């Protein structure tokens, strides 16, 4: 005979409290599973929306690129007369910049907007290379930045060299805009430098662009040099005429550089948006596969639970 024991059943509230953690654990696992599935679905929808935006931006850039190509085609013959008064454009890649004079003013052409590939980073890298070469040779350089992106990047490395910046430049550009930029360069004393170096992206085709730089030398000794433009008579003083000619040549060179850079910007943006759309498509496929796997796992778990419950009832 077993001894009597004073066993009292715990209150129902206590039993419920003890069982609650186990029940909540099961429920939380289900909730986490459903939340993960829902989260993947939301990621798919967000990625699809981004893909729509990038596809639209690609089409817009393609339409703008055609107009920029036409403006560049008109700017090239317009600027051809400056070849007799200044050096030809040079490729930045592989250049040593040893030919640059003692004191130069660097004018990099960048963009105000992003999402256009590496056009601004390449220009910034080129300017850093020129400044490094100048300082290594014991020479000096100042910077006048065109474009907000270039200003933000160069400010981190050569803030002390930036004497002026031009941002919120209207697009598409015009010769009036280039004349305004040339006037700003003259106001900072462009003629006091040994040379002005324009650094810009040169458009090759819709997939290729390269970095170029132009070295523009002021007509400092033109008034004393009798061999400079000997066959021309001037209605005003030759010194004033040379200053006006230099400003006009600078405006023409700025106009061509700005048109070339704007065309390269649109081609780079079109390529970048095309790549972004492809990446979004690949991400959507990957997320859809994960979503289907999570959904199938949930359905399989529910079927196992139903079958197990039915087997328990039959048993």
Structure description:
It is a single chain. The protein contains five helices and six strands. Helix 1 (12-78) runs antiparallel to helix 5, helix 2 (119-136) runs parallel beside helix 3 and helix 4 crosses helix 5. It is elongated, with a radius of gyration of 34 Å. Strand 5 and strand 6 form a beta hairpin. The chain has 315 residues and is of the alpha/beta class.
Characterize the biggest β-sheet: 6 strands, mixed
Specify the overall morphology: elongated
Question: How many extended strands?
Answer: 6
Uncertain residue ranges: 1-10, 26-35
What is the CA–CA distance across the termini?
A: 34 Å
Average pLDDT rating: 84
Helix content: 55-70%
**Major β-sheet strand ordering:** 1-6-5-2-3-4
Radius of gyration: 34 Å
Protein structure class: alpha/beta
| Strand content range | 5-15%
* Count of helix runs: 5
H/E element string? HEEHEHEHEEH
Précis, in short:
It contains five helices and six strands, in the order αββαβαβαββα. The chain is an alpha/beta fold.
Keywords:
about 325 residues; alpha/beta; 5 helices; 6 strands; elongated; disordered N terminus
Set out the fold topology:
Blueprint: H1 12-78, E1 90-91, E2 103-108, H2 119-136, E3 140-146, H3 148-158, E4 162-166, H4 175-187, E5 195-205, E6 208-216, H5 238-314
Parallel strand pairs: 2-3, 2-5, 3-4
Antiparallel strand pairs: 1-6, 5-6
Helix pairs in contact: 1-5, 2-3, 4-5
